[in-house]
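Private note to self, pasted from the team thread so I don't lose it. Backbone tokens:
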């Protein structure tokens, strides 16, 4: 307690304003994962991209982002988190401008890969800055509540923004939109964020870098190829097996080098392991829902892109209420699994609700209910998981711990979405084959597609339910110390009051 009291006067009075710009950077990263999706048909026509190549517009971003996150986190620890935050933002803005101006497939592909690379530097930098800026339990709960809400709703906002920009302007603005966001975050971050870095002489773990980057590339690329080649193809199995071998070798090397890139003590912690798992599983549920509901609304129900984006707004509001209200208040008072496990059960229920939907189900009875369940569940999971994924980490390891949870989020969403999409496609094909006598018709095609979504949603729910049981047993962290919470409640003001200067 003496340490806490000694640190209390040193709290940066600009920390809540700084949080706004950190969260803005995180919003840009998550938003960019979905904002281009709705624009794919338009940009494919404009640039003459083949059906076989169009997946690379998404894969180039996720491949660079997912495979370089751990390296980005360690660079942030060594080079300075504010510095890498600024470089990441400027690089992301430049790559976005390049993509918006692209006049051929190669230029757009390069821009998307650069976006992913700079996002891998920016994401861990932003989260580690949040971790070292907010150390008091109550303030940390509020900050991570905001962070978790931004992370959970960013994908839905991306779908809304992508639909609006594509309908009313041009697909290029789905890339250009990141430029002003990044520049605002650079200006505000430079003025409000304090620099922090790992003490001591830095030595980059080169073997670890090569092994983990190669392993993650193989996993993400293998998952992306599974959507077109199938999970049983020799190419996909070879990539996944190769990735597993490289990551196993990485774990072996990290246990023996003097300055490991990812210290084994970070991932051996039960609480942190449970946090990583819950983030990954939550993202499988959320991104699976985005994929299925987007196609259901546009293809089966005939919604326009902008109307589809608007249909996701209730889910967004549910996340904000759950994460910013309930989670932020309870996080410093209860054990983490008390929030995470019910959250996972709610997300699973949202996926299972797909089983009640038919091609003629009204929006209020189908998508709205599923979206609210998903939103409330994700709002309970994300703030708590991000908080405990970085909780108790030495300041020197804040960047790599932040990169670890970002990697869990990115790899799970890439592999999970590919897996669910494969399950949905197979179920649709089986339905068509078993009902071939009905003949082709728009209603039949919609029914077959919905059958695929329902089947994949059921699998996703099963994965989430199994994960909830594992987290309940694994994440046995007790509730925060009552004295710490009381002390923080006395010293911390409301977020809005701090931002208003009161």
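Design output:
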């Amino acid at each position: 307690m003496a340490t806490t009291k000694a640190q209390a006067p040193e709290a940066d009075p600009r920390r809540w304003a700084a949080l706004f710009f950190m969260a803005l950077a995180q919003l840009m990263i998550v938003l960019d994962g979905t904002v281009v999706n709705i624009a794919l048909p338009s940009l494919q026509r404009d640039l003459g991209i083949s059906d076989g190549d169009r997946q690379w517009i998404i894969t180039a971003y996720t491949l660079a982002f997912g495979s370089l996150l751990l390296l980005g986190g360690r660079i942030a620890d060594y080079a300075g988190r504010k510095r890498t935050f600024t470089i990441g933002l400027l690089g992301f803005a430049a790559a976005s401008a390049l993509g918006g101006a692209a006049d051929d497939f190669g230029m757009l592909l390069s821009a998307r890969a650069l976006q992913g690379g700079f996002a891998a530097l920016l994401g861990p930098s932003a989260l580690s800055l949040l971790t070292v800026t907010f150390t008091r339990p109550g303030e940390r709960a509020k900050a991570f509540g905001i962070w978790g809400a931004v992370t959970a709703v960013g994908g839905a906002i991306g779908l809304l923004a992508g639909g609006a920009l594509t309908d009313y302007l041009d697909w290029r603005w789905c890339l250009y939109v990141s430029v002003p966001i990044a520049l605002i975050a650079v200006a505000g971050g430079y003025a409000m964020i304090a620099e922090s870095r790992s003490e001591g002489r830095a030595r980059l773990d080169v073997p670890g870098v090569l092994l983990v980057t190669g392993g993650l590339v193989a996993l993400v690329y293998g998952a992306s190829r599974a959507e077109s080649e199938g999970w049983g193809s020799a190419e996909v199995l070879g990539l996944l097996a190769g990735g597993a071998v490289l990551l196993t070798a990485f774990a072996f090397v990290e246990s023996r080098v003097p300055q490991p890139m990812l210290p084994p003590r970070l991932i051996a912690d039960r609480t942190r392991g449970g946090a990583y798992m819950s983030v990954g599983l939550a993202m499988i549920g959320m991104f699976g829902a985005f994929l299925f509901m987007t196609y259901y609304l546009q293809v089966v129900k005939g919604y326009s892109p902008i109307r589809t984006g608007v249909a996701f707004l209730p889910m967004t509001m549910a996340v904000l209420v759950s994460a910013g209200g309930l989670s932020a208040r309870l996080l410093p008072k209860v054990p983490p699994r008390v929030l995470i496990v019910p959250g996972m059960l709610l997300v699973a229920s949202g996926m299972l609700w797909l089983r009640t939907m038919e091609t003629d189900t009204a929006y209020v009875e189908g998508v709205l209910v599923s979206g609210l369940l998903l939103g409330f569940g994700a709002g309970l999971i994300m703030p708590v998981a991000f908080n405990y994924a970085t909780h108790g980490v030495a300041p020197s390891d804040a960047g790599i711990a932040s990169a670890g949870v970002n990697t869990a989020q990115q790899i799970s969403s890439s592999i999970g979405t590919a897996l669910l999409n494969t399950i949905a496609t197979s179920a649709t094909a089986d339905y068509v084959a078993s009902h071939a006598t009905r003949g082709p018709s728009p209603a039949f095609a919609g029914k077959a597609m919905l059958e695929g979504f329902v089947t994949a949603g059921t699998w996703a729910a099963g994965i989430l339910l199994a994960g909830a049981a594992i987290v309940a047993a694994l994440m046995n962290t007790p509730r925060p110390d009552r004295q710490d919470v009381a002390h923080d409640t006395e010293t911390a003001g409301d977020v809005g009051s701090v931002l208003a200067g009161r």
